[in-house]
Design a protein that fits this description.
about 425 residues; alpha+beta; Peroxisomal Thiolase, Chain A, domain 1; about 35% helix; about 15% strand
C-alpha cells in the first residue's frame, strides 16, 4: 500500500555534551566516548532505556578507521536496545542536520516511527597516519613470505618515511583552510573586523545569559566532569577582541582572528525525532516539527565563496515552502566565523547577488538581528564539526517549545562548499 500523505515529523528534544576546546578537558576521550555520552544522555532525558530506535544516524568528520561503524558502536555503549540499527554518515559540518533530514523523510513517509540524529567530533584524538610510500611498504612486508621478500620490501627505506601525516583542515581542491577561504569572502563582501568582533561578543553574552537563566539545564549533559562549555567567555568584549592578531592572513586587509572564529572543538550532540503517534504513545513531548530541509553546493574551486552555499540552500527552501526570509520568528545561523554569518546576511540583501546567483527578481532582504542566535551560537559554545547541526536543531526546538509557538530557520555552512538548511515550526 502506497502512503498518499506525509506525516508530521516531531522533534521530541535533544541533548549535547558540554563543548570543549580541543586538547583540553576531553583530551583523553574518543569520538566513541563522546557520542555514547550524548546518546546515553538522550536516553536518560526521555526514558528510552531498552527502547528499540528504528534508526540511529550519526557521524564524525575526523575519525579513525576503527570508527567505520561509529553510530552502531556508540548506541551499543548505551542502555538503548541493541536491536536498534546504527548508520554512520558524514557531510562535514552539516552531518547531524543531514542525518535528521534523512530520518525525517522516512518518518514522514511511514517507513519508520522514530530516529536519533547525532554527531560528534574530537580534534584531541586525531588519526595520525603514515605517508603512502611507507604504508605501501608495510603492506608489502605483511605479504612477504620469505626473508628475501622482506628485504626487498625494505629496500630504499629512509627515516623520512616515518614522518606522520595528521589530518588537515585544508580543502583538498584549493589547499586553503576554511579560515583562509572565509578571509577572502570577508574581503569580497567588505566585512570589517569591528562588526565581526561585535557579533562574536554578542554570541558569548547571549550564551552566558542562557546558561544563567537555566536554559541549558536539560540540553547539556555532564561529560568527563564538565558541566558547561569551556570556550564560553561571559566577560568577552570588543576591546579585548580588538587586541588579537589576525590568524589566517597578515596585512591591512586581514580581519579574521581567534576571537571572531570558532576554535577547534570536541563534543557531541543528539536529537530524538518521531511520528506524533510514537511520541504520544510514550508520553513524550513534541517541541516542534521539522517541516522543510534543503542542501546545496557552490563551485568554490571556480571562485565562489566556500561558505556561501547556505544562501543557495535557504533560497531554494523558501521557494518550495512559499515563504519569505522575514516569515520567521527565529534564525539559527551557524557561526563558523563571524564573517561567514555577515557575508550570508549581506548576500541576501544584495539585489545583484539574489538576481545573478539565486535567480530571484527581488533580494531576499534583511532579518531582525534580535531574532538571530538568541541563545548564542558556535562562536561562543564551540563547533565540533559533525555535532553542530544536532546542537542547533535541539536548541531551536527547545526555544520553540518554551515559547509555545513560532517558526525558526536553520542555516549551516560546511566544508567542501556545501550548505544545509531547515525549517522548524511549533
Amino acid at each position: 500500500m502506497i502512503r498518499k500523505t506525509l506525516r508530521p515529523v516531531a522533534i521530541i528534544g535533544g541533548v549535547r555534551t558540554p563543548f570543549c576546546r580541543s586538547n583540553s578537558s576531553y583530551a583523553e576521550l574518543s569520538n566513541l566516548d563522546l557520542l555514547s555520552t550524548a546518546l546515553q544522555g538522550l536516553s536518560a532525558r526521555f526514558a528510552l532505556k531498552g527502547e528499540v530506535i528504528d534508526e540511529v544516524i550519526a557521524g564524525a568528520v575526523i575519525k579513525h578507521s576503527r570508527d567505520w561503524n561509529l553510530a552502531r558502536e556508540a548506541l551499543q555503549s548505551t542502555d538503548l536496545s541493541p536491536l536498534s540499527p546504527g548508520i554512520t554518515l558524514q557531510q562535514a559540518c552539516g552531518t547531524s542536520l543531514q542525518a535528521a533530514m534523512f530520518s525525517a523523510g522516512k518518518i514522514a513517509s511511514g517507513q519508520i516511527e522514530c530516529a536519533i540524529a547525532a554527531g560528534t567530533d574530537t580534534i584531541s584524538d586525531p588519526p595520525i597516519v603514515f605517508g603512502k610510500r611507507f604504508s605501501q611498504r608495510l603492506l608489502k612486508l605483511q605479504r612477504a613470505r620469505s626473508l628475501k621478500d622482506k628485504l626487498r620490501a625494505l629496500k630504499g627505506f629512509g627515516l623520512g618515511e616515518l614522518a606522520p601525516q595528521p589530518p588537515s583542515v585544508a580543502e583538498p581542491r584549493t589547499l586553503l583552510s576554511m579560515g583562509q577561504h572565509c578571509e577572502l569572502m570577508a574581503q569580497e563582501w567588505g566585512i570589517g573586523r569591528a562588526e565581526q568582533d561585535a557579533l562574536a561578543v554578542a554570541s558569548h553574552r547571549k550564551a552566558a545569559a542562557a546558561y544563567d537563566a537555566g536554559f541549558f539545564d536539560e540540553l547539556v549533559v555532564p561529560c568527563a566532569g564538565m558541566l558547561r562549555d569551556n570556550i564560553l567567555r561571559a566577560d568577552s568584549s570588543e576591546e579585548k577582541l580588538a587586541s588579537l592578531k589576525t590568524c589566517f592572513e597578515r596585512g591591512e586587509r586581514a580581519t579574521l582572528t581567534a576571537g571572531n572564529s570558532t576554535p577547534l572543538t570536541d563534543g557531541a550532540a543528539a536529537v530524538l525525532l518521531g511520528s506524533e503517534e510514537w511520541a504520544k504513545s510514550r508520553g513524550l513531548p513534541v517541541l516542534g516539527y521539522l517541516t522543510e530541509a534543503q542542501t546545496a553546493a557552490v563551485d568554490y574551486v571556480a571562485g565562489e565563496g566556500l561558505l556561501m552555499a547556505p544562501t543557495v540552500a535557504v533560497s531554494q527552501m523558501l521557494t518550495r515552502a512559499n515563504l519569505s526570509l522575514q516569515d520567521f520568528d527565529l534564525y539559527e545561523i551557524h557561526e563558523a566565523f563571524a564573517a561567514q554569518v555577515l557575508c550570508t546576511l549581506k548576500a541576501w540583501e544584495s539585489a545583484d547577488y539574489c538576481r545573478d546567483r539565486l535567480a530571484r527578481d527581488e533580494p531576499l532582504g534583511g532579518i531582525d538581528a534580535q531574532r538571530m542566535n538568541v541563545k548564542g551560537s558556535s562562536l561562543a559554545v564551540g563547533h565540533p564539526f559533525a555535532a553542530t547541526g544536532a546542537r542547533i536543531l535541539g536548541t531551536l526546538a527547545e526555544i520553540l517549545g518554551e515559547a509555545g509557538s513560532g517558526r525558526g530557520l536553520i542555516s549551516v555552512c560546511t566544508a567542501g562548499g556545501m550548505g544545509v538548511a531547515a525549517i522548524v515550526e511549533r
